[in-house]
Design the sequence.
């Protein structure tokens, strides 16, 4: 990672900030019922997520700011998507609750680790976390594409996506909690 004295606002971090700025635009489009344009903004935000990480690795321009800002931008986009789509009746409220609770538990555990041990647990994503993020993004994309009438999906396909996303969200949440407990037991003084 780049040292603190080096430039923090590089191309990857600028792309991450752009993704954060996409969130209110995306949510406004959803609130206005413009699902077609909302799909485009959501996909652009998703593409910047992949591009910023690739550029940071290829150009060795990773920064401490980017390491924290990138996952925060991802969570902001996903959690706000689930809240808004649940309010609009496009996804089950129960799925929205699972997404919010999981991310709140993960963030709370991270902050608690710093308060209790004096150092923060490394938040490296697990295979369950990556699978959950993929399914959460896929589910939002499927709902948006169906509502924009770009992709005809019957209710059974969406229900399957909701169920798989819900199960993965629960499993990854339990996995992160178990990892946090193991980390705390190893890091705390006897």
Sequence:
């Amino acid at each position: 990672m780049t040292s603190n004295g080096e430039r923090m606002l590089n191309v990857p971090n600028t792309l991450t900030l752009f993704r954060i700025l996409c969130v209110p635009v995306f949510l406004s489009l959803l609130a206005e019922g413009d699902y077609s344009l909302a799909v485009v903004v959501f996909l652009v935000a998703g593409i910047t997520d992949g591009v910023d990480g690739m550029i940071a690795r290829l150009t060795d321009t990773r920064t401490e700011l980017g390491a924290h800002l990138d996952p925060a931008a991802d969570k902001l986009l996903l959690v706000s998507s689930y809240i808004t789509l649940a309010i609009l009746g496009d996804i089950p409220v129960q799925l929205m609750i699972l997404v919010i609770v999981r991310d709140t538990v993960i963030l709370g555990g991270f902050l608690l680790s710093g308060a209790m041990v004096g150092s923060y647990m490394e938040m490296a994503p697990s295979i369950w976390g990556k699978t959950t993020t993929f399914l959460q993004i896929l589910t939002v994309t499927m709902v948006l594409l169906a509502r924009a009438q770009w992709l005809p999906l019957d209710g059974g396909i969406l229900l399957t996506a909701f169920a798989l996303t819900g199960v993965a969200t629960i499993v990854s949440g339990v996995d992160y909690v178990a990892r946090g407990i193991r980390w705390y037991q190893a890091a705390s003084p006897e």
